[in-house]
TrEMBL record:
Keywords: Cytoplasm, Glycogen biosynthesis, Glycoprotein, Manganese, Metal-binding, Transferase. InterPro entries: Glyco_trans_8, GNT1/Glycosyltrans_8, Nucleotide-diphossugar_trans. It is an enzyme of class 2 (transferase). Its main location: cytoplasm. Its EC number is 2.4.1.186. It catalyses: L-tyrosyl-[glycogenin] + UDP-alpha-D-glucose = alpha-D-glucosyl-L-tyrosyl-[glycogenin] + UDP + H(+); [1,4-alpha-D-glucosyl](n)-L-tyrosyl-[glycogenin] + UDP-alpha-D-glucose = [1,4-alpha-D-glucosyl](n+1)-L-tyrosyl-[glycogenin] + UDP + H(+). One of its GO terms (molecular function) is glycogenin glucosyltransferase activity. This is glycogenin glucosyltransferase. It comes from Mesorhabditis belari. The lineage of its organism: Eukaryota, Metazoa, Ecdysozoa, Nematoda, Chromadorea. Coiled coil: none annotated. It is found in: Cytoplasm.
Amino acid sequence: MAFASLATNTTEAFVTLATNDDYSLGALVLGYSLREATTSKKLHCMITEQVTTPVREQLQRVYDDVSIVDVLASNDEANLALIGRPDLALAFTKLNCWRLTQYSKAVFLDADTLVLRNVDELFEREEFSAAPDIGWPDFFNSGVFVYRPNEETYRALLHKATTEGSFDGADQGLLNSFFSGWREASSAFRLSFIYNVTGGIFYTYAAAYKKLRDQVKIVHFIGTQKPWRGGVGIQMPEFAQIWHRIYERHVAGTVPGSSGTETIAESRSRWEQGRPDFTGKDAFAEIQEALMKNLQ
Ligand code: GLC
Ligand code: MN
């Protein structure tokens, strides 16, 4: 089922990025979640050459615009190791979002986010607005932010990236250094946590989650365990279920290999029956590595 664009405002857009077919599954579900929430803004997906043609075609069904951007690699293995995410070497590619100057204002959403209800009010905010990161709340999380596309900002970011690098080897470190006034800025620039709810592996405030979960507007599946990869390590299983339902409604069977995505329930029951997939989805080695790191 395809969705007609409801965009009445063509100068403001939600923007995301998919650097390969895997993340495109996230981008597809994110796009449909925005449509189901009846956004009046445009939807724009940036992709790299990595994304294959059938997947691009599906992205074009839900996004008003799909544009190809250059890969920007950080080449910073040492700092990426600090956050345990060697897979984020291409995360600077996100900076291309400042080049979408056809929009006067935009909201960037990671492809691993999911919109649960209309969030068009985010466009009332100014650059640079974001929500705190749960790992270190004096820094913002770069999975959801309000910004103004501008070539000059893009060049300044790129200059900073090439001359100073990023303290986490990826976009979040760079953006926090660039917009370093965020923590001290007025509260208008600090988005509520309901716009970027992340779950932690080692610490989650379960009581707050219980009290406020009905108000959550955007969920962000951080870490290596993404909903489209199934797995038992997934945080916030009830939100992952919502992700899977949107996936089943609009995406399953539309792109090669997309029908086989295991649901959380299936994955959990397989785990309970003692058949975890140690080599693949359950990424036991990853969980063990994270535990060992924490113990050290
Ligand atoms: C965090 C952010 C993500 C970013 C990464 C690296 O995980 O959620 O958007 O890519 O940090 O900076
Ligand atoms: Mn993310």
